[in-house]
Amino acid sequence: MILNRILFLFTSVTLLTGCSSGRAPEIRAICLRDDIGNYIIKWETDPHTDGTMKLYVSDTPNSFDMSQPCSYASINDGRVTYITNDNITRKYFLLSFNDKYFRTVGARSVQMDSVQNLRDIGGYFSEHGDRVTSWGKIFRSGELHSLSRNDTIRLDNLKIKTVIDLRGEDEVAVALDKYTGVNFISIPIPVRDKDLIARRLEEGRIRKGDGLVYMQDTYLRYVTEDSEQFSKALKVFLDKDNYPILVNCSLGKDRAGFLTAMLLTALDVPEETIMKDYMASNNYIDLRHLASMASNLNTDAQETITVLLNANESWLDLAFHKIKKEYGSTDKYLSKGLHLTEKERDTLKDIILY
Fold first, then answer.
1. What is the C-alpha separation between 238 and 297, in angstroms, rounded?
2. 33, HSE (Cβ side, Cα atoms, 13 Å)
3. pTM for the structure as a whole
4. Which of 220, 225, 237, 122 is CA-nearest to residue 185?
5. Following DSSP, what letter does each residue of 24-64 receive, concatenated?
6. Which residues contact 286 (CB under 8 A, 6 or more apart)?
7. Hey, how many other C-beta atoms are within 10 angstroms of the C-beta on 121?
8. 325, 232 contact by CB (below 8 A)
9. Residue 28: other Cβ atoms inside 10 A
10. What is the CB neighbour count within 10 angstroms for residue 196?
């Protein structure tokens, strides 16, 4: 899992800041958290660069005290650990290479006790690598139904202003989000045939293949039946006063995943990066609490549940193929299917990218 996270979180950009001659190095940097909660920051430069890396830390990605680095390292070391016993406050880091080249990083996931799949979608580069999604502005997660006291503090520290809840009305009724003090915007996208699937699982009358077909149909419906709802959700991102924004659904992988994919598409983030963000749900959803629920079911039902609770690259890929078949391109789907104008796309870029 750690290797998958490393491969996923490594991103690169050519930085020109402070470059007086020659080509600025390509810098790849990641921020991970170990089992204790310490931050591990790793980097690579191409071409090889000698000198000093200064590390600055902040509770916000937009403001760093540059008067005193929290750590120094040789650029050749390629890593540094920021030791902390603070498991409540989220940290961001600014890496300074020879006081010429700079890179801001944060840990992708936000550690929570009772919220699935909460993560930041900052640090993704646009198609040409010249602009990047801001850290600390947009988060995605599962439902906020069972919040521990520490989880509430963690969410407060993220300074969330708006929650876009994509769950159906029946889901909200049985698991009302418990977080208060923010603007909740409910845009229901119901889970079709949920009761039927649950009954067939209990009766042992469903197979893994049935689950795969069901999820394929779900993603196709996002394009053919739910575009108006996703369009409404995208409009929320056009108001800069709504940020930071959290998008959630039951597990934060399907409806939240598709909306995030469309938002990143509107920001000209490459499809490969979008797919990696989507698939990362498999690293941040903890299925252990569901194991006891499935223990009394037959093998077919358990395998089907595994299918339903995981992200699958082929499902989002199928949605993209449907978009291109029906609309000709993702750009045309954004404009005709999701009613997002070029001017509105520019607004999104101005707000989210830096």
1. 45
2. 22
3. 0.91
4. 237
5. PPEEEEEEEE-TTS-EEEEEEEES---SEEEEEEESSTT--
6. 116
7. 22
8. no
9. 16
10. 11
Structure tokens at 74: 């040789």
Structure tokens at 43: 């980097």
For residue 69, cis peptide bond before it (omega within 30 degrees of 0): no
Tokens of 101: 């080249």
Instruction: At 252, list the tokens.
Output: 């934060």
Q: Answer whether 74's CB lies under 8 Å from 84's CB.
A: no
Query: Is 99 buried (19+), middle (13-18) or exposed (0-12) by CB count in 10 A?
Result: exposed
Reading the block at residue 198, the tokens are 């649950």
> Could you check whether the bond before residue 270 is cis, i.e. omega within 30 degrees of 0?
no
CA distance 123 to 224: 31
Distance of CA 2 to the CA centre of its chain: 17
Q: Which helix (H) or strand (E) holds 120?
A: strand 119-120
Chain segment 6-63, per-residue pLDDT in tens: 333 333 333 333 333 456 888 999 999 998 899 999 999 999 999 999 999 999 999 9
132 SS3 class: strand
Q: Is 70 within 8 Å of 32 (Cβ atoms)?
A: no
Long-range (24+ apart) CB contacts under 8 A made by 180-184 are: 181/156, 183/242
Per-residue pLDDT of the chain (354 residues; tens, 9 = 90+): 433 433 333 333 333 333 334 568 889 999 999 988 999 999 999 999 999 999 999 999 999 999 999 999 999 999 999 999 899 999 999 999 999 999 999 999 999 999 999 999 999 999 987 899 999 999 999 999 999 999 999 999 999 999 999 999 999 999 988 899 999 999 999 999 888 888 888 888 889 999 999 999 999 999 999 999 999 999 999 999 999 999 999 999 999 999 999 999 999 999 999 999 999 999 999 887 666 667 778 888 889 999 999 999 999 999 999 999 999 999 999 999 999 999 999 999 999 999
Place of tokens 């690293």: 283
Whole-angstrom Cα distance, residue 36 to residue 289?
21
